[in-house]
Amino acid sequence: MTDVYLLSGFLGSGKTSLLVNLIQHIREQGLKPAVLMNEFGAISIDSDTVGDSKDVPLKELLNGCICCTGSEKTEAQLQGLLEEYEVDVILIETTGAAHPVEALDAVYSPLFADRLDVKGIVTVADAKRWIERHTMSPQIRALFMEQIKHAHLLVLNKTDLLTESQLATVSMELANFNENAPIIQTSNAQVSFAYIEETLQKLQHLPTKPIISGKNLPLSSKLIVLEKPVQKEHFEQWVKALPDTVYRMKGYVPVEGASHPFLFQYAYGMVNWLPEYVKMDPSLVVIGEGIKDLEYVYPSSKQS
Ligand SMILES: Nc1nc2c(ncn2[C@@H]2O[C@H](COP(=O)(O)OP(=O)(O)OP(=O)(O)O)[C@@H](O)[C@H]2O)c(=O)[nH]1
Questions:
Q1: Domain holding 83: CATH number?
Q2: How far is the CA of 205 from the centre of ligand 1 (A)?
């Protein structure tokens, strides 16, 4: 299993600074890190920046968009990393404009279920921006807050720009806003990988799929196995009736009359079916909050 850490946080909050620190620490532990990033092509991180001799495998996460094409490509990049390199830890730096759920999307692909061990979302929160969040437009502020809300661990960065009393206030407000995430105060995102590893480990309750099962974590994921073909219309009605807290669904759904399961996508209220030419195992990954008991119930069969 390859460990995966998602680095989230608003534009300019200090994600890259954190990434560079973590790469160095991971190497010092004798482990091989790789990076998936939003904004850059498949280039190696400059070894000067990383502070070591060897380059780190780096792939492009083409966009933070939840649309099918984007996440398909993300899956391909992840697969590429796993196949081309020997990797112990993958750090995914999401774009500052991405919702962390979108980034989780590709990682929770059924393709990687037995290969990736998702450790959690580390969000870098810009302390100064938090104080000034009221100056942001409502939409952008909402994104900034979402990134903080969905964190499993909060790195409260740029503390050097705050007075002590401001820092105390911000820490308290963040702790109230995301009650589950431990907070570490940093300057230049100076936090050790060991700290992050241990802290997230403590939040895990089951040996596999920590986010999926961690009862204190805001986001969870669930795998639904569809044992027999569904009626498309009935299935879509079920999808429409789901609570807003189901953010994302994706997987292979067998449909009555079709020879192979369809690739099924659901995001922000929209569904998308794509025919598959290979017979994939019928399973559906659901990401959301409070979805533990979510099940698809087939219509009761009519008596003849
Ligand atoms: N004063 C101060 N500046 C910081 C701190 N951490 C990072 N910076 C600066 O903030 C800027 C953005 O840092 P990055 O690490 O590139 O942030 P990022 O989140 O990766 O930025 P994007 O990729 O644009 O989203 C850089 O100029 C950093 O030097 C900090 O703790 N204090």
A1: 3.40.50.300
A2: 33
